[in-house]
Write a structure and sequence with these properties.
The structure holds 2 protein chains of 2 kinds.
Chain A: H1 8-11, H2 13-24, E1 30-35, H3 42-56, E2 60-65, H4 70-83, H5 92-108, E3 115-119, E4 139-143, H6 153-163, E5 168-171, E6 184-186, H7 203-212, E7 220-225, H8 234-245, E8 250-256, H9 263-276, E9 282-286, H10 292-301, E10 304-307, H11 316-323, E11 328-331, H12 336-339, E12 347-349, H13 352-364, H14 366-383, H15 386-399, E13 406-408
Chain B: E1 5-26, H1 29-38, H2 41-54, H3 65-73, H4 77-84, H5 94-111, E2 124-142, H6 143-152, H7 155-168, H8 175-182, H9 187-194, H10 203-219
Antiparallel strand pairs in B: 1-2
Helix pairs in contact in B: 1-5, 3-4, 6-10, 8-9
Classes of the chains: A alpha/beta, B alpha+beta.
């Protein structure tokens, strides 16, 4: 695990000093994070990185879990999908079970934080504790990690009764939020520059890894890193590659994984293999979820990175690529436009033809590509690294103690 | 040049912000004007300043959210350029700037009836910021101490003393120039720093520009 001081080499000592100054104002406050799992999934991953850094800054950050059971988590998975706009039917009996487990958790969990920071829908009902005796001084924040812009209305209205009881809410993108009666703060997710997936690699290390996959280090390379998922449009990426290949000798890497809980991903993977039709310049890599170093090396060895998603959450893989100084051509969906300003820190496209045009432009103009990559890296450095995330969370916790919009500390 | 000592030190503060969503948005120019009219100072300030803190290194043009959206999303390039070119630094308060912007947008709308509309994903989201002002507990009594600290402060501190100051002091100046003129009695150096138009620099460039002016003073 990295120490907070290790980050000063990346973001500068002045940034770390600022974090210490903010943290000093949280002395004596307990920040209690609550979610549903300690391993697996984006929320657990970010909490497992951020909480140790907060502790090192002397913030008393704690992390508790709710209990559920198979049926409860099946229902919460349905709620999750339904918030994403997927058509799922959830019965009243299932919603009753959700409420029953919430009440069971309310009896068991000790809410000892001054700030109770609830992540995602699974523990959302714990807000009922706010009306209990002894809870008057506590501040409750709901952190939504999901894009709820096209949420199923029945489920959204069911959850809204809880959401609007919180003191504040947090969303990852302006596009993900809804009209609510409580304040909504914008806090983008982040990448960890010192993690296996993003740390600097030696040239030899990169070469060893990509040669293991049969990738030609001398050939121009376009890459998409993503799960084999229709919404990431890997078949469309092959179309892009074929349009580019007419004019430029290049290779394509499609690297990602198939999820055990998503039977469709194996089907998409097979369709990708079929569409590649044995082309030796198309490298289809079905990687296990632990392949962080491999993904890091592949991104660093690429000439252009593509993220041709049809729908996207925040799309942090874009920031991962930009952090490596790579030019990125990505669809203008989800949180991607927050990470890429068109023609400044990357290129935004909407069609297969448009994506192919921009990829060709970047492959033919290394100077232009390098400038976009340089700007992109600087943009990620200022806005999407974990140190910014830690800062935003601390400011959020501080805000719960004040009504004003301008706070003098 | 001599290194004079001040009676009152320069106290370095830092301004940090947390963006807040208002729930208001616009899909076309008419809705944008309506939103701007109902927006308070905090909202207008956010959309004309947050780019400075997001892009420390190089700014995409045009560098204010209204002009950026009009140019790049709505595709009204001429209007976007006109809004981008309004000299924010020449206004002593944000409401005067807002009135000028509304005047120009309404003039355009009166002449151009065909309204371009974007999809919901490309909407303009009206936002504001929760602001935190923190004392860094760094104090400079002399110009050389000031220069040393300046080189090591974050852009958020520079931002507070440069951009925030002109609105706080209700005059086109900045905290650095005020202190250098009043405490160190160096009006010429203060005027040179005052003459920098901060809106045409990135934060890193601005830091370099101020640093260089002070270094040049010492070389004389």
């Amino acid at each position: 695990m990295n120490s907070i001081n290790d980050y000063s080499e990346v973001v500068g000592a002045e940034t770390i000093n600022e974090l210490r100054t903010i943290a000093a104002h949280l002395e004596g406050k307990i920040i209690q994070n609550i979610n549903s799992t300690s391993v697996g999934g984006g929320v657990a991953e970010i909490l497992s990185r951020i909480i140790p850094l907060l502790k090192e800054l002397n913030v008393d950050a704690r992390w508790d879990l709710i209990k559920g059971g198979e049926k409860f988590f099946e229902i919460t998975k349905k709620i999750h999908n339904s918030l994403h706009g997927i058509d799922v039917s959830i019965s009243d009996e299932e919603l009753d079970h959700f409420l029953k487990i919430t009440d069971d958790n309310l009896k068991e969990i000790v809410l000892n934080g001054n700030v109770i920071f609830i992540h995602d829908p699974q523990p959302i009902g714990l807000i009922k504790a706010k009306k209990m005796p002894g809870m008057e001084e506590k501040k409750f924040i709901w952190r939504c990690h999901i894009d709820i812009s096209s949420a199923n209305l029945k489920i959204l209205n069911f959850l809204k009764k809880f959401i609007e009881m919180y003191d504040m809410s947090v969303f990852s993108s302006p596009l993900f939020s809804k009209k609510l009666k409580i304040p909504q703060v914008l806090i983008s997710p982040s990448i960890d520059p010192l993690s296996e997936k993003n740390k600097e690699l030696e040239k030899d290390e990169i070469l060893n890894i990509i040669e293991k996959f049969g990738i030609d280090p001398e050939k121009k390379t376009m890459t998409q890193i993503s799960r084999f998922d229709r919404l990431k449009d890997p078949l469309g990426v092959i179309d892009v590659y074929r349009l580019v290949k007419k004019y430029i000798a290049c290779q394509l890497i499609l690297a990602g994984g198939t999820a055990n809980d998503d039977p469709e991903s194996s089907q998409v993977y097979r369709e990708v293999i079929e569409k590649a039709n044995g082309d030796k310049d198309i490298h289809i890599l079905n990687l296990p979820p632990t392949s962080n170093i491999e993904i890091n090396a592949i991104q660093r060895a690429s000439t252009v990175i593509v993220q041709k998603s049809l729908k996207e959450g925040f799309g942090l893989t874009v920031s991962e690529s930009l952090w490596k100084g790579k030019p990125v051509v990505a669809s203008a969906v989800g949180g991607i436009p927050l990470q890429i300003t068109h023609k400044y820190s990357g290129l935004l496209s909407r069609t297969i033809e448009g994506t192919a045009f921009y990829v060709k432009q970047l492959l033919q103009n290394p100077g232009y590509a390098a400038n976009l990559g340089k700007n992109g890296k600087e943009h990620v450095k200022n806005n999407f690294l974990i140190t910014r995330h830690v800062k935003d969370y601390m400011l959020l916790f501080l805000k719960t103690g004040y009504k004003e919009d301008t706070i003098f500390l | 040049m001599e290194d004079r000592t001040a009676r009152h030190p320069f106290k370095f503060f830092v301004k940090l912000t947390l963006p807040e969503l208002t729930g208001m948005y616009a899909l076309n120019l008419k809705e944008l004007i309506k939103g701007i009219k109902s927006a308070d100072e905090n909202i207008i300030y956010y959309h004309t300043h947050h780019f400075l803190l997001q892009h420390h290194y190089i700014s995409p043009a045009p560098p204010n959210d209204f002009a950026f959206w009009i140019t790049n999303i709505l595709g009204e390039e001429l209007l976007g350029e006109e809004i981008a070119s309004i000299d924010l630094y020449s206004f002593e308060n944000i409401n005067d700037f807002k009135s000028e912007m509304i005047k120009r947008l309404e003039k355009f709308l009166a002449k151009n009836k065909g309204l371009k509309r974007v999809d919901i994903q490309s909407r303009f989201n009206f936002m504001k910021a929760i602001t935190f002002i923190l004392n860094t507990e760094k104090y400079a009594y002399s110009l050389s101490e000031f220069l040393d600290i300046l080189k090591n402060i974050s852009v958020y501190s520079l931002y507070f003393h440069f951009f925030e100051a002109s609105f706080r002091l209700k005059t086109r100046t900045n905290d650095f120039s005020m202190w250098i003129a009043n405490e160190l009695n160096l009006p010429e150096l203060a005027a040179k720093i005052d003459n920098i138009d901060p809106y045409t620099y990135t934060m890193y460039e601005l830091k370099n520009a101020v640093t260089q002016l002070i270094e040049q003073y010492f070389k004389k």
